[in-house]
Every structure is written in structure tokens, then in C-alpha cells.
User: What shape does this take?
Amino acid sequence: QEEEFSVADAIGGPRGIIESVLPTLLFVVLFVSTRSVMIAAVTATAVVAVLLIARLVQRQSIGTVLGGLVGAALGAVLAIRSGEGSDFYWPGIVTNAVALLVLLISLALRRPLVGLVVALLDPRVKDWAEDPEARRVYTRATLLFVLLYAAKLAVQVPLLLTGQVAALGAAKIAMGLPAFAVIVYLVWLMHRGLLARRERG
Assistant: This one.
């Protein structure tokens, strides 16, 4: 509902960046330098656990960090069991695939997911489903996220299957918060444009 777009708010501020990037960065650096799946996977998981504990101590929301801990722990188990560093990224790949599927289903049901989420955040568009223009706007906005997750899978799955651990880590970081912030900014512009047209009409 803000009049100006905040990149910091969109990506969770400096803390959000650290919590998102640090586990993957540590895994890549440690795996490349030590060639030890055990050291890299356990360290990355431990770091997420510390971040989670810090949030609990400060009585802050743990939703995203908890999800990160589950993903890191599952990835660590898979990588350690197989001995393949690339298996650490399987949970993230599956998460992207599920997100893409949910987005596509919402479009097929003519209830684009972005419209549902935005209506929860901004009551001014709670009637979006009955407004053809709003439905079109949020359909296009949802398609932007479809493109994002489809691009993630198109780039990261081949790297995963060929065992390109360092390249996969770099792709995950680059296509994570930076790409998400760009998409959220575009969606915000579309939402603001819709509100402006409603006010004029």
C-alpha cells in the first residue's frame, strides 16, 4: 500500500539478504575449497540453524528461516548420502517446481495467485475477482512469476543433472533475491497503475 516501492522491504532488508544468500554461498565456497560434501553441507545447515535461533531469541518471525532450515537439512542429508554436492540443491529445485505448478493451477482456475495475495495485503482491491481489468492485471502479474520459476528450472535443472555445484550455487543466488525483487517491483507498478485508473474512473 506504500506510495513508493522499497527494495529493502521486498527482499527483507540486509538481514533477509544474509539469511537468503549465506547458506548457499558457504556451501559453494566450502565444497569447492575442501571437496568435502560433509563439511559444506553440515556448515550450511548449522548456519541456518543459528539464524533461526537468533530470530527466536529476538521474538521475530521465523517462517522464512524455518523453511530455509528444512531445505538445508534435507539437502545436506541427500548430499551426504550420495556424496554428490549437487544433491544439496534438490529441495530448492523441488520447491521451485511446486511453486510453478501452484501458479499455473491458479491461472487455470482463473484465480491468479498474485490477485489472491494482493487482495489480502491491500483491501482496496478485495473485489478484484469481479473486475475484468483487475483480473487481467493480476493474471499478467502471476505470469511474471511463472516466467521467473520456469527460468529457474530451465537454468538450474541441467546444472543439477550435470553436477555443476559452483555454477548451480551462483545461479541460485543470482536468480534468487535479485530476480524476485525485480518481479515484485513490476507487480507493484502494475498494482499502482490499476489503483490509479480506478481513482480516475
In short: The mean pLDDT is 91. Residues 144 and 183 are 7 Å apart (CA to CA). Residues 132-161 form the longest helix (30 residues). The radius of gyration is 19 Å.
